[in-house]
Amino acid sequence: MLQLYFWNGDGWDKVFEDFVKGYKFSSSGKTRTMHVTTAGTPCNKPAEETCSYNYRLEEDAVSPVQ
After folding, report:
1. In angstroms, rounded to a whole number, what is the distance separating the alpha carbons of residues 10 and 21?
2. What are the start-end ranges of the H helices in the chain?
3. C-beta of residue 4 within 8 angstroms of C-beta of residue 15
4. In Å, how far from its chain's centre is CA 37?
5. Burial per residue of 3-31, b for 16 or more beta-carbon CB atoms within 10 angstroms, e otherwise
6. 23 with 34: CB under 8 angstroms?
7. How far apart are CA 14 and CA 53, in angstroms?
8. How far is CA 20 from the centre of its chain?
9. How far is it, in rounded angstroms, from Cα 38 to Cα 31?
């Protein structure tokens, strides 16, 4: 289980939660990205295969990248 929290000035907000097999963070200029690998089930593959997702880490949110 991967959980990601952002500080809102008064406390912590949970902005991401999912079961993942792996993850890594990268950046390019001011853009920060989280790369996530899950079991295959969420993308209609057999569970032993994997799915890859990318998310943009914004100042106050995590947004899927397509």
Report:
1. 32
2. none
3. yes
4. 9
5. ebeeeeeeeeeebbeeebeebeeeeeeee
6. yes
7. 19
8. 9
9. 23
Q: b or e along 33-46 (b: 16 or more beta carbons within 10 Å of the residue's beta carbon)?
A: ebebebbeeeeeee
Looking up tokens 């790369």, which residue turns up?
Answer: 35
Map residue 43 onto helix, strand or coil. Answer: helix
Whole-Å CA distances, 6 to 28, 49, 66: 20, 31, 22
pLDDT digit string, tens, across residues 17-57: 999 999 999 999 999 999 999 999 999 999 999 999 999 99
- Does residue 62 contact residue 15 with C-beta atoms inside 8 Å? yes
Identity at 55, one-letter amino acid code: Y
Chain position carrying tokens 């853009």: 31
Report the predicted TM-score, pTM, of the whole model to 2 decimal places. 0.83
